[in-house]
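Blackboard transcription, Thursday session:
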Amino acid sequence: MPGPVAAGATPGARAAMQTRPFAIAIHGGAGTITRAALTPGVEADYRATLAAALRAGQQVLAADGPSLDAVAAAVRVLEDSPLFNAGRGSVFTHDGRIEMDASIMDGRDRRAGAVAALTTIRNPIDAARAVMERSRHVLLVGAGAEEFAREQGLATAEPEYFHTALRWEQLRVARESDRLQIDHDAPASAPAGDGKYGTVGAVALDRDGNLAAATSTGGLTNKRFGRVGDSPIIGAGTWAENESVAVSATGSGETFIRAAAAHELAALVKYGGRTPQRAADEVLATVERLGGRGGLIVIDRSGEPVFAFNTEGMYRGCACGVSAPEVAIYR
Amino acid sequence: MPGPVAAGATPGARAAMQTRPFAIAIHGGAGTITRAALTPGVEADYRATLAAALRAGQQVLAADGPSLDAVAAAVRVLEDSPLFNAGRGSVFTHDGRIEMDASIMDGRDRRAGAVAALTTIRNPIDAARAVMERSRHVLLVGAGAEEFAREQGLATAEPEYFHTALRWEQLRVARESDRLQIDHDAPASAPAGDGKYGTVGAVALDRDGNLAAATSTGGLTNKRFGRVGDSPIIGAGTWAENESVAVSATGSGETFIRAAAAHELAALVKYGGRTPQRAADEVLATVERLGGRGGLIVIDRSGEPVFAFNTEGMYRGCACGVSAPEVAIYR
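(Written on the board underneath:)
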């Protein structure tokens, strides 16, 4: 298994963290991401956006804000970027539409909110949070979720906002090969610029020792039938409880659901005595046994971010305490 | 915690079970179900339908059929009855519509299928199984799920089929009090015949040692915004893996999702060394701590069914080996 991003905090920052550590980790999806597939310019764009997302979360945490706000802020930056398969950069369904899923969970009390198949909401993660905080429910889907988000006054966007030429070309290629594209897997006949989309997520620990997790996605290119993956499923794509860990997953959603990936990871830590890294590796081994691939990001109350993926690469990064954000893409 | 249905198998039947045990357990929802609320005639109807569902599953198992077929057969009987809040007896949403959810899981390989917000499919559990066996997905929702089920040739029904006077009256009362009804909780101003609806589910062990679980529901009376509860969520309302247990849950879906109830139960058995009964009790304690109520049915490879609920009653029953089905309602 690939190790975490190399620790780069200064000794002073590390010492400060030991009293009241805070940290955030993010992912922008996992898949066939190789050095050969990314031009230097595109790679720089990814790194800059990942760093911006980390800074958005870090600012919240450094100001003694809650981890819940930090993960939402980081995910919002990734949703607003056309580079990642969430929010603005969402891929197209078989019918040429956008269907976005998101979820968020608060480790303090396991409150959670999730939405599936949103079509016009600019930041699905805000809709998930509104479900958590302003409804009696956890999961809303489809037209009803859309209606709820609009009633809550969340910003919407016209179809053109979500309509990028790259995503449309990906749909054309996928339709031709009748293929579902998972995260960053490039089809054999990938158009230039392919292999650059994916679920996004964040996990964080705040100074009060509270964990939170958030995940957002546009799902699979060419998906049909109202398919919902693991991202909006509490326990599969997202989990947070202060007693164990906060987790966000990315990859072949169906196998992550069948593995109850995020909650299984927490259970391995809580009841199985595993370290977060070993638990993440074991969950990925299970996912692989079920025929899937992808990645996980994890944080516990020590504030040490953990990354695991069984793909060529995963867009990822972390910021521990006030140290400069670190990002990575390849193994 | 309430104990299981009293064991009633003959010594001979128990002996036969010890070599290659097989068993099925079912629930028809939990809630405010008291002796005072049910007339003898209505109670007899419930008992007869629960027994019929158990026999349908038992027949499959006795003929060396797979537990997957057994749980589907049992749930189908409960879906076909107007007594239970699933399939035909589904409650109405705020808009006076039907939205049904279901899921199924195979303990052999953790294959799983689920549907949410179906509106015309007669047996949602068959749609969940079709998703598992004939799609590349695990969870389909809304119009897409409906389209998939129709393409698969599953039986549909006109709105009148689902339209019972009792459910309509329940919606009227719930609308007036702007109240969401959970399972079998009767509102203060309950119309005669209320307190008689609920999620249904089944867990089974077959002679080959394979576990399976299935859950189906019409959700909450007066629900809005495409609300989805725990029933179609693999890991919350349903879980099955041969290495631990098969579980089906019923109750206040939101808290069961936040507890990852079904998978948490499996994890407590697998990693926490708990017996299924103790694990079920612990999960219900967590659900209660999160403000919820409901029940769980569990079976492991020993074939001993386990029941747990923190409500006044739970429609339930089991059939071990070839013994006559046993049913129970109250504590």
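Lecturer's comment: Chain A touches chain B at residues 109-112, 116-117, 135-145, 147-148, 180, 224-229, 233-236, 239, 253-254, 257-260, 263-264, 267-268, 271-272, 290 (CB under 8 Å).
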